Amino acid sequence: MQILLQRASNSRNNAIRKRTPPFSDKGHMYRMAPFGILVLLFAAMVSSPAVRAETETPAISTITSQTDCQAEPKATKEPDELFASINVRGRAKNLAGQPVVGATIFLVSTIAINQRLGETKTDADGQYEFLDVKLPVKQFKEIRAGAFQVYGEANGYGFAWHGRRSYSSEPRPKSEPLEEEESGFYADDPIVMDLTFRDRAALMGVVTDEKGLPLPNVKIRLSALDYLDTKGHEIHQNYREFWAIQSTGYSTTLTGADGRFEFSGMPSQTVAYVIVEASGFADQTFFAAVTDKPITENKYQSNASEMFSNGRRIRTPIWETRKVRAGPLNIRLEATERYVINVVNDIDGTLVQGVQVRANSGDGQTGTHASDTTNETGRAILALPRGTFRLSAAPPRDTDFVAAYSQFEARGDLIKEPVEMRLKLGCVLILEVVNGANGSPVPGLSIYCDVDGKPGRKVTVQSTTTWADNPVTNAKGELRAVVLPGSRNYEISSARLPGGLRADPKSIKQLIKCESGKTIRVRFEVR
Question: Minimal CA–CA distance to 425: which of 404, 409, 447, 448?
């Protein structure tokens, strides 16, 4: 099951938007098996974005396996108890395979906030254990689940982490063998999370203005950490990266009077996502490698294509390349000018309130960023340095408008005319899934569609083009979605359907021509 962990709290929301432009299709996809339907409930689980690049397609995570979640977990706690009791154990070692003795190990919940749940030490063999830890869980309809991460500190080493895992208090389905799992645990699963400590290293640099003068009190934040060499680690970066870094003392620092900064105690041969924030300047984001090698790019496993053969899941890594900077870092910030963005209704030209407007340079996930929300007059103000930016406008979720995009050249002119962005209506789809034998509705199903311009790539259908909520069919077997105009295939999964149902081959996939301003009802049948 795929889920996108979307944003919630304001402080974390801001951090995420700096790394994850809204309305993207190329995202972190979570496969949490049947309990993966927990979508918005895990809204603030991520300390760094779930989306990797900005395109004119829905803000949803890319899927490569079409597995719906149908299992209805049996409650193991009373309804008013929003936690589950878990045991976690593991072993700490170094790159040579030797035990790391006396390391301090932390267990952190990654729902809503990075909340420390426990702290312990490794023994003479590098072993550690947490017993009867109360893990906070969230509930979506009948499903309860939590998520957590383990990290450790040890003298002479950089800090170490184990990839994040989810937990459901229901028994593990036979269709989800533990040996094939990298995303989460079920009740009665042995939870083992080993740690490998690397050499101690530092990430340092200097921040200056456009004149080369040092800038003091600039905030530098690390919102996630990954390995430079991802082979041998979790295939999907959502499960592999160190999202709980904000619960540590390694995530934030300020530049000194000389503009210099340093993150010490870092693990070597890793790559950090860096956010630079300074008053009077637009935010900057980039990837920085913690290494003594002079590299400019990094090839990594971002996701996996999946297929089922003889009842088994076969996963093949998808490799991508990201640009990185190697330290010491020289970060230059440029002075900004204010630009007014007017967002109007394309139907009657009226200004629209509550639209999130964002400007991105670079590839969207790296570069310079600024954002604002239109006020009651339909205006947003962006502070930008000179350069070329891509503007995006995310309409309120309770409308039938779709995301708008445009290019913008910030020239620093003395006279700045407001920039106008026009919101257009999308196509409203009512996607219905029924039992073809008796006409009864089939609730709880995700529906998938093609990604425009990317043959073979599919995404879960979202309620809007701007925010990911990973909806499923309701009690009437219906899913309502506002989508971009265009022709694309929509389909239901044949991998897992409730009650022994199977998808009708004639109905499983349908090519739909989506037109602006129209409402289209589409019926899928299972038997």
Answer: 404
pLDDT at 16 over 70: no
Q: What are the E-state strand segments in 154-228? A: 160-171, 184-187, 195-197, 200-208, 219-227
C-beta of residue 409 within 8 angstroms of C-beta of residue 500: no
**6: its two tokens:** 């979307």
Burial 422-456 (b: 16+ CB within 10 A, else e): bbbbbbbbebbbbbbeeeeebbbbbbbbbbbeeee
Report helix, strand or coil for 14: helix
Structure tokens at 200: 């101690």
Query: DSSP states of 305-352 as a string?
Result: EEEEETTEEEEEEEEEEEE-EESSEEEE--B-EEEEEEEEETTT--B-
How far CA 342 is from CA of 307, 359, 426, in Å, comes to 46, 14, 20
Q: Tens digit of pLDDT for each residue in 399-439?
A: 999 999 999 999 887 677 899 999 999 999 999 999 888 88
Classify 135 as helix, strand or coil: strand
Give the SS3 label for residue 246: helix
Spatial neighbors of 512 by CB under 8 A, at least 6 apart, are 429, 487, 488, 489, 490, 520, 522
What's the pLDDT tens digit per position in 91-141? 999 999 999 999 999 999 987 667 889 999 999 999 999 999 999 988 765
* CA proximity to 63, closest of 402, 306, 291, 414: 306
